[in-house]
Design brief:
Helices cover 27% and strands 26% of the residues. It is an alpha+beta fold and 309 residues long. It has 2 domains: 17-129, DNA primase, PRIM domain; 135-307, DNA primase, PRIM domain. β7 (94-98) and β8 (101-105) form a beta hairpin. α1 crosses α2 (109-117) and α4 crosses α7. The longest helix has 19 residues, at 43-61. The radius of gyration is 20 Å and the shape is globular. 38% of the residues are buried. The model is unreliable at 1-9 (pLDDT under 50).
Length: 309
């Protein structure tokens, strides 16, 4: 993207733009508003990126309870979490009810662009599927750095990947879009969340013993020092994860991006290297790396863990 950068002080309101998408009309208010001012990304440019990302982002949010984070005036200003569907809503926007909350069902490009116009800059999908809070369709380990800048995060992810591989488990590493990485294991059959948390605890305990200068399972940040937290407890019905391909509201416009294990092991990359400015070329080259691993069977590993509780 070579457009000149627009700062908040330079921005002037432009007339709304009208988009015709899949038979629906989307109004883009303030299309020139800078949402990532430091990176020169305006609202209209953001929505163009969302349109490209839509087949991938929608795939990983469909049938999940969606939480968005809205930044009405861009990433340098106030923000808020939104679980309930914004009102008024167009007729094409569908909702899913759960515990008194009407969540947006992100199931179409018009819905995604409507949210984009509302300056929803982050999309967080529930671990549980709509209508099923008992079973998880994937197993997730979240590597959460204590340090604001953690140069060892790729090394840590590589160690986890090799450990899982030694157990016969294939996985996909994914940047959170912030400072951490998540290790995703698609499941051949859904498993109870509690069962997967027990497996996560087993892995986290092993890592913290085998690499005490790198990993911890200590929940309190103040007690972690500079260690990377192996978070298995957040893998829970009702909790959320930064969806694959969601942008993040940080300088550099990072995007939560699946990686290859070769990229992780190379040591050449940092999570912020993957962003709205280069995600188009990456997806054209790699496709959706979330599909690079077949669904995994965990029966033997789970039985081993259960026998050692």
């Amino acid at each position: 993207m070579n457009e000149p950068r627009t700062t908040s002080s330079q921005w002037k309101k432009a007339k709304p733009a009208l988009l015709q998408i899949e038979g629906e009309q989307i109004t883009v208010t303030n299309p020139d508003k800078p949402l990532w001012p430091e990176d020169g990304i305006t609202k209209l440019q953001y929505m163009e990126k969302l349109a490209f990302l839509s087949p991938f982002l929608i795939k990983h949010c469909r049938n999940r309870y969606l939480t968005t984070i809205r930044f009405p005036h861009g990433i340098g200003d106030k923000s808020f979490y939104q679980k309930n569907c914004p009102v008024p809503k167009p007729d094409f926007v569908q909702v899913a009810e759960s515990n008194g909350i009407s969540y947006v069902r992100l199931d179409s490009l018009p819905t995604l662009l409507w949210l984009g116009n509302l300056a929803c800059l982050e999309f967080h999908a529930s671990f549980d599927l709509i209508g099923d809070t008992e079973y998880a369709p994937e197993w997730v380990l979240d590597l959460d750095p204590t340090l604001k800048e953690e140069p060892r995060i790729m090394e840590a992810a590589g160690i986890v990947g090799k450990l899982l591989q030694s157990l016969g488990i294939q996985s996909v590493p994914k940047t959170s879009g912030a400072t951490g990485l998540q290790i995703i294991v698609p499941l051949a059959e859904p498993r109870p969340f509690e069962e997967l948390r027990q497996l996560g605890q087993f892995i986290g305990d092993f890592l913290s013993r085998a690499h005490p200068a790198l990993f911890t399972v200590e929940r309190l940040t103040k007690n972690r020092g500079d260690l990377i937290y192996v978070d298995y407890l957040q893998h829970f019905a009702g909790k959320t994860i930064a969806a694959p391909y969601t942008p993040r509201a940080r300088i550099g416009a990072p995007v939560s991006t699946p990686l290859t294990w070769d990229e992780v092991h190379s040591g050449r990359y940092r999570p912020r290297d993957f962003n709205l400015l280069n995600i188009t070329e990456r997806l054209q080259s790699y496709g959706d790396l979330m599909d690079s691993v077949p669904p995994q069977k965990l029966d033997s590993v789970l039985q081993f863990v259960a026998s050692h509780q």
